[in-house]
Amino acid sequence: MSRRKRFGEILVEAGIIDEASLQKALDRQKGSGRRLGRVLEELGVVTEKDIAVTLSRQFGFKTVSGLAKYNFPSEVLALIDGSQALEKLIFPLKKQDKTLFLAMVNPLDMETLDNLAFRTGFKIVSCVTTPSEIQAAVDKFYLAAKQEQASDWWTILIVEDQELARAAAAAALRKHGYTVVEAENGAEGLKQAHQHKPHLIIADTIMPRMDGYEMFRALKSNPATAKIPVIAMSSKSSAEEEAQVLDMGYLDFIAKPINPVRLAARSRRALRLTYGEGDPPRRT
């Protein structure tokens, strides 16, 4: 039996990346637990569409797009929880007899496929799509009603000294219905945290005046802000950097440059982990 080609090899053979770019990505991925595709996106050598097209051509999967433009029956949507759809980057398309057609970012994720087949009793047929497509579909069909009712309850503080990066992150979150407060350094972020009591703080680790680590320690030492979850952002996307911030008590870590889809998904995950599936209490 021939060996199944690795994802990186497939991209090289397809002419999407070269050997040097692949090796650089593999070095950065080592020990981080991140998907190779995500690392390649961060390096700017592939797009999410490149990955979808390559997987489709290599393994004969059908590609799907424009998911948010269509309507899906409630009985199909009920087969997958919205949280699972975001976490696994999957979306139910239709059921036909005992077959479920499923949009996936990674159609080679056999664990997710096997678990879903076991739970639903359906045969799963995979179709390839992109993270942006999944996010848009989940927002519309699973989360839209909840956002309309309580989006203004969710306040997120962005602390970032680079104005363009801060504005991009804030715009991505406002697009999903969040109230966003901005600060340009740790000292200002600390002030805004005490003033607004946000439900979530997303902060760069390296900033002037007061860096993200100092701000984080100050937040956790004050009972008024100690329970606010904090996500670290850093251009140092090594496994050591990620391990350091998680050991300190940060809820999550996002490597820069920030991908808007990933930022929204990680923010939603952080709020869900902290406050549960319901709406959070209003801050006073």
Automatic annotation (TrEMBL):
<dbReference type="Pfam" id="PF05157">
    <property type="entry name" value="MshEN"/>
</dbReference>
<dbReference type="InterPro" id="IPR007831">
    <property type="entry name" value="T2SS_GspE_N"/>
</dbReference>
<dbReference type="InterPro" id="IPR050595">
    <property type="entry name" value="Bact_response_regulator"/>
</dbReference>
<protein>
    <submittedName>
        <fullName>Response regulator</fullName>
    </submittedName>
</protein>
<dbReference type="Pfam" id="PF00072">
    <property type="entry name" value="Response_reg"/>
</dbReference>
<dbReference type="InterPro" id="IPR001789">
    <property type="entry name" value="Sig_transdc_resp-reg_receiver"/>
</dbReference>
<feature type="domain" description="Response regulatory">
    <location>
        <begin position="155"/>
        <end position="271"/>
    </location>
</feature>
<dbReference type="InterPro" id="IPR011006">
    <property type="entry name" value="CheY-like_superfamily"/>
</dbReference>
<feature type="modified residue" description="4-aspartylphosphate">
    <location>
        <position position="204"/>
    </location>
</feature>
<dbReference type="InterPro" id="IPR037257">
    <property type="entry name" value="T2SS_E_N_sf"/>
</dbReference>
<keyword id="KW-0597">Phosphoprotein</keyword>
